[in-house]
Amino acid sequence: MSTFLERLFPEPKLLDVPFGGIDISDHSVRYCSLVYKKTHYEMGVHGETRIPDGVVVNGSIIQPEELVKVLARIQTESGLTFIRVSLPEEHAYIFELSLPRIQESEIRSSIELQLEEHVPLSNEEALFDYEIVTQDTEGYLVSVTVFPRSVAEVYLAVFIQAGFRPLS
Known about the structure:
Blueprint (H helix, E strand, L loop, with lengths): L1 H7 L11 E5 L3 E10 L2 E11 L5 E2 L2 E2 L2 H15 L3 E5 L6 E8 L6 H12 L7 E10 L3 E10 H13 L3 E2 L2
Parallel strand pairs: 1-6, 6-10
Antiparallel strand pairs: 1-2, 2-3, 4-5, 7-9, 8-9
């Protein structure tokens, strides 16, 4: 039945934006995309490009203009526009937090109130996301990932300058 309905009412292409994934290390940029082929996904464009020493050090972008050049070349060659980017794990703080039973809409604000107890960043300096690991009648166990806002903003600026449109 769902196949019949999917044929009658296919997902609008506008909602199915093709995207690639990009990972930057201190020495290279890796990228790939997946392409849907009727019943399965296949690897689309993919590759790895070396970046000069000193451009990225321990996950920090030291020479943004040089990285923009590398990324712009990848953007032109790959044809990727929309991307999902991994941030450097060297700057990540990850912890689990137990929360009492509250409305799911209140989880984010509850985490925000406790953030400074778990990471050496103020709320203004931090960007975070969470995932509910388990929930029961007592409450929630959530996994929280925190990044310095300054790191995320530098990565975002570099990708935008290179012609990419980051989705996440």
